Amino acid sequence: MQNVSGSPAGSTLYAPSGKWALVTGASSGLGVEFAELLAARKVNLVLAARRREPMERLASELRRKHGVEIHVEPVDLSAPGAAGRLKENLDAKALRIDLLVNNAGFGLHGDFLDTPFARTAEMIQLNVTALTELSYVFGRDMASRGSGEMLLVASLLAFQPVPTYATYAATKSYVLSFGEALHDELRSRGVVVTTLCPGHTETGFDAAADARVSPMLRRLTMKPRPVAEAGLSALARAKPSVIAGLLNKIVAFTNRFTTRSMQRASMRKVMAP
Prior knowledge:
alpha/beta; seven-stranded parallel beta sheet; 7 strands; Rossmann fold
C-alpha cells in the first residue's frame, strides 16, 4: 500500500520529490524545520509568513544546499481574507500546491480578561479562521485532482482546558477536532489530512506569548526537529493525528482518567512560572 505521494506505507518521512509544498509560519520555529526537512527530500517550497527577510535567508540556504525551487510569499495571515489572497497569488503564478503545512499560529499567555481583546481576536483569526480557509481553498484543489496532503499543527494543549492559555488552548482544540474530521471526509477523495500535536517546543513561542517557562514544563520541552519529523512521518503513514514525544503522549493519555476540574488544576500548576 502507498500513500497518495507514492511513498511506501510505513516510510518514516514524507518524500514526494519534485512536488510543491506550502509552509505557513515559515520565518521561524517549526516552519523552518518543516521547510528544511522537505527541501532535503527535493520538495519545492512556497514559504509564507509576515517577515520577508528571514524567509529570503532560509530560501537562499535551501536552494544552495538542495537545489530546489523556492518562492517566498510575505503575507500576514491574521488579516481577514489573507488566506484567499495567498491562494489567488499562487494561482496567478501557476504554482500547484501538493502539500499544505498549516503551521502559522501564535499563543497568548495570561488571564483572559487581562489580555487586550484585539490581540485575542487576531490570534483566533490566525489560528482558526486562516487555517480553516487555507484548508478549504487548497483542499478543494487537491480533492478535485484526487491527490494531496495537509498537515495541520495543533498542540498538546488541545486535549484539556488550560487556565492562562484559555483562548489559545481552545483554538488548538478546534484544530485537532477539525483536522481529524477532515481526515475522514477527504481520504476517499485521495487527500490525506494529519494533525500534529506538539508539546512545549524550543521555538519563539514563549517570547511571542509573553510567557515564562515553569520548571515542570521545561522538563517536557522538545527540540523542534523531532517534532517536525513526527508530523511528516505521521503524514506519510496517513495517520489522522500524532502527539510528538513519548512524555507528551503519556500526558494526553492520562487525561482519560482524570476529571475536567483535575485537568484544569494540573494545567494551572504546569503553566505557573
